[in-house]
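Hi V.,

You were right to ask for the full record rather than a summary. Here it is.
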Amino acid sequence: MTNDCAAAAARIDAAQPAASVQLRDLVQRHAGQLEQLLGEQMQQTNPLYAQAFRSCADAYRGQGRGAVASWLYGVTLKLLRDAFAQGQAERFVLRLHQAFPSEFSRPLLILALGGGSYAACSIYLCKPAAAAASDISLPASSDNWVRQYLG
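Predicted structure:
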């Protein structure tokens, strides 16, 4: 069984409407900037992880754009979830939201808050980045946070 969504996407036409762009395409488009942000976040929270992250990033880059983008997506979710669990998410979330367009950062934040498995979250790589909020389920306790930061 194959997962076409996990495969590397074809180059995105610059004229393609934002509503039809899949999340995986946005991750690929912003992979370099996302890698830098994640490396900086890890350097602040655990320098040893940052060193390992850079080595892994080099290995994934050698496997192609699709592989590195999928991996960065998973690392982003993990770091966001860790930051939320430790009560230290605000700065990281603000940096993510400021560094990237909302059609990229918003689904990542919603999925991190949602608590779904990483396998379930990987399905959203195949959804349009502008998918309806109802397509991404959230626990009731996160409603206030979502309104405050993603309004």
